[in-house]
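PT: before anyone asks, these are the final sequences, not the draft ones from last week. 228 residues across everything. Please model them as a single complex and drop the result in this thread when it's through.
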Amino acid sequence: GENVEQHPSTLSVQEGDSAVIKCTYSDSASNYFPWYKQELGKRPQLIIDIRSNVGEKKDQRIAVTLNKTAKHFSLHITETQPEDSAVYFCAASIWNRDDKIIFGKGTRLHILP
Amino acid sequence: GAVVSQHPSRVICKSGTSVKIECRSLDFQATTMFWYRQFPKKSLMLMATSNEGSKATYEQGVEKDKFLINHASLTLSTLTVTSAHPEDSSFYICSARMAQSYEQYFGPGTRLTVT
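LR: through. Structure below.
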């Protein structure tokens, strides 16, 4: 089955700097890659997603890139703010087959003042 | 739109008893619902996939006789943890997907504590 690896597990970034989280996936059939932000005790919130027919997607300070050949995808957060502190999960899914979302292990992002 | 609720939000039960958790899609019909378990400071682990009117598909290592899933309608799925033990204490989260949608909508989670 699908395996999603995520790095780093913890990331500390100075406020205003950029943060990058990287993930790899194993199943070449995966075609949908959502990213979630989760605050303590809360549900995961979708922050951005990308489909396999697109190489890059941007939404304000957040961007995601996908390299299908290498089976890598990354999240970039620019101009980080204190409210960006949270746990971020990458995930992979095969849409229209089993639709299961398989999560990476998560990255705890700390924004330093 | 696309709201998913879970009930209860927190439950404490004694070892050996059973607990039922409900997951509802409030404003859409969910063709598929998923159940996850999340231990403290860990990731979400998929337990099972539930399609309305059919038996749930369980992930490897998840005991189907212990975690009973029922998806009786397009808006309701239930997870029953039978004969609960302290190691079943966890945060249980459901998600729901509507037909032809990429996105899954997550419930707020249920914190189960077994004493």
